[in-house]
Specification:
The protein is built from 4 helices and 15 strands. With about 250 residues, it is α+β, with helices and mostly antiparallel strands. The N and C termini lie far apart (about 90 Å).
């Protein structure tokens, strides 16, 4: 009888060990299967990104110009490049700017609800500053869409534990960002394929706050610079739309 109980206990112990071993192996296999294409999975799928035509976002922080107050809003038509900017100057003037970010051409300007004539308070230099801010924001917000390109060179990935979480680090070079600049550095993905860290010689960001902005598309909304708090950027509102009224890009 004693031997029988001992055998049963032995089998139970072996069964528990086997379950633990299998679970650990599945975790390792899942980690090994993380690839650069997993970035699309991290935001809900490439098809969702490609089918999203209009994106609205409001951002704060990481200001590139002293012309604007901190909070700013952009609405973009990704197919045509049309863009609507709404914000305020540091002198508390309301600005609505209609332009095309692909051609970088100004369409209309409204200051405090009216079209100025021969305004000296808003010049082509100011317009260039807003364009620069737009691209500085979008290259962060749209970062996950930047690496599935033929010119992107990917090095050998490595595994790293960050805050008890298994991650995969990819060396990247020659990736083209949304603003046209080149990304050379590293990105770190979690098990879900989300980018949680971005490293270049110029900037290192920890990335979080992934949110469903509509239709199952998930984008990061919090970018914390590791050395310069002034470069932190938070997207307080991000929303995706399949349709948008034409007037948003043509008039006040």
């Amino acid at each position: 009888m004693g031997n029988k109980f001992q055998n049963m206990n032995y089998l139970k112990i072996m069964l528990v060990l086997l379950v633990l071993l299998v679970g650990h192996s599945v975790s390792l296999i899942a980690q090994e299967n993380i690839s650069l294409l997993s970035v699309w999975e991290g935001i809900g799928g490439k098809s969702k990104w490609e089918s999203t035509k209009f994106i609205l976002f409001t951002s704060q922080g990481n200001e590139t110009t002293k012309l604007l107050s901190s909070e700013r809003t952009f609405l973009i038509d990704r197919s045509s490049g049309r863009c609507r900017f709404e914000g305020k100057t540091t002198s508390n003037q309301s600005i609505v700017l209609l332009f095309n970010y692909k051609s970088k051409q100004l369409d209309k300007l409204y200051l405090n609800g009216a079209e100025p004539k021969g305004s000296k308070t808003f010049t082509s230099f100011h317009f260039q500053q807003i364009i620069e801010q737009f691209f500085e924001d979008t290259k962060l917000l749209f970062l996950p869409s930047s690496f599935d390109q033929s010119n992107t060179i990917v090095g050998t990935p490595s595994q790293k534990i960050i805050n008890t979480e298994k991650t995969t680090v990819f060396p990247i070079s020659s990736a083209l960002l949304f603003d046209g600049s080149i990304f050379n550095g590293k990105i770190t993905l979690n098990i879900a394929g989300q980018i949680i860290r971005s490293e270049t010689n110029q900037n290192i960001y920890t990335i979080s706050g992934y949110k469903d902005i509509g239709g199952g598309l998930n984008l990061p909304t919090a970018f914390k610079h590791t050395t310069s708090p002034s470069k932190n950027c938070t997207f307080t509102t991000v929303a995706a739309f399949t349709d948008m009224e034409e007037g948003k890009f043509t008039t006040l």
